Amino acid sequence: MSDTQLTDIPKGRSRPFEIYVAVSATAFLVSYVATYVYSFYLQKMTFDSQFHPGADFPGSLVDPAVHDPNKYNVGVHFFGDFWTTLLRTQEASPYLVRPGVGGSSYPPFAQFLYEPLTWLPYPLALLIFLVGSTAILVIPFWRALSAYEPHIRATFIIVGIMLTYPFLFSLDRGNNVVIATGFLLFGVLSLHEGKPKKAATYFALAAAIKIYPVFFLLMFVSGRQWKALWRAIWVGTTLTLVPVLTYEGGLVANLKALYANSSYFRDGGAQIALNHSLASFLNTLSLGGFNPGGITRQLIEHYSLVVLLLVLISTLFLLASRDDFYSIAIACLLNTLLIPITYGYTLTVLYPLLISLATASGEQLLKRLIAILLAILFCAKGMPIGPAGSSLLNYLNPSIQLVILFLTFIAISHHDFSRLFTRK
């Protein structure tokens, strides 16, 4: 893959990952105390509304007259993303809008994965999904932390993964991004084991569920692993197109409907509430009155150009990188920072960077700093600050991601950039 590719998971312990877990434990406690104070003492917002969109029942997507909510709730909770996806999977086409449930914005393979769950009673289907979502994250970390005793590994996983805001948010919503992230984690481990073709299959599975993990394929271009790249392309394409052929309406109509249904996530950067993206950051600054020389509004109005420029620059640095850790950092951040709508569960796509941190070798100072930033990024920050609908996360989380991206650029510039201009 790169000049510092690891052919085995290191036997030693990872000081950067240990620092991450320690800071993560502290950040978890501080953030939840702050949330409690804001909600109960300052009466700013309810405790739960600082973690996920207030209405757990997806009223804009599901008509209660068609689908009785009393059949799908767990207490007062609905695990809305799981429920609506399961309902759409039961339709002749999940993309063509019907009365009672809106069209899906998930790729066809993501919908296909829910098919066996439609055969089960809803509580059992939900339980299998939540347990499976947890397992697909825990297993790769258990392997990556093999240098530690079992009780220490378990503690690290509970504190560093299961108590983090992105994981709790994803379970709260029942969102399948965790499954995509799990495949990314297995893919990163396969890279560390020197198995690029196996990694390509995992990355293709992730991209077939959430699309944006396609950026991880750039690592095969960087390492000139053309066979692995080709495998990822044909596996991902097959997983995307074959399920559509079974849907009512045909291939073209369903793909057009999928594109139309996903417009919210392509164009919704103006939404501020619980949005961690760069687009939301710029809109929050603008609404808060920070617009020196009109530059903030200009960046918002030309956001597509901003995204294109950052993607091109990031790709250039990724292709130059000799250290898999920084290559993975760029691939992760392209997923979480630039998409206009980035809810808390999307931040789980940064977990592959934690796997890489746990198996990192070489230079440690920048990696320790990035470990601290990730721990702060992964704690809850829904306390309301700034213009209506905004909170601390709108300011801090995009800023932290940008800092990590720039630190990555600095590391690559210092060590690796001449690689782009050296023929092999």
Our count of helices gives 19
Separation, N- and C-terminal Cα atoms: 14 Å
Helix content: 55-70%
Largest sheet: none
The rounded Rg comes to 21 Å
Quote the average pLDDT: 84
H-E order: HHHHHHHHHHHHHHHHHHH
Q: Runs with pLDDT <50, length 5+?
A: 2-10
Q: What structural category arises from helix and sheet content?
A: mainly alpha
Number of strands: 0
Please state roughly what percent of the residues sit in beta strands, choosing from under 5%, 5-15%, 15-25%, 25-35%, 35-45% or over 45%: under 5%
Question: What best-fitting shape do the alpha-carbon axes yield?
Answer: globular
- Taken together, the total number of domains comes to 1
From the structure above, extract its key features.
single chain, 424 residues, mainly alpha, globular
Word description of this protein:
The longest helix is centred in the first third of the chain and has 27 residues, at 15-41. With 424 residues, this protein is mostly helical. It has one domain. It contains 19 helices and no strands. It has helices spanning 15-41, 80-89, 108-113, 122-144, 150-162, 165-173, 177-192, 196-210, 218-222, 226-244, 251-261, 263-267, 278-287, 295-301, 303-320, 324-336, 351-358, 365-377, 392-415. 59% of the residues lie in helices and 0% in strands.
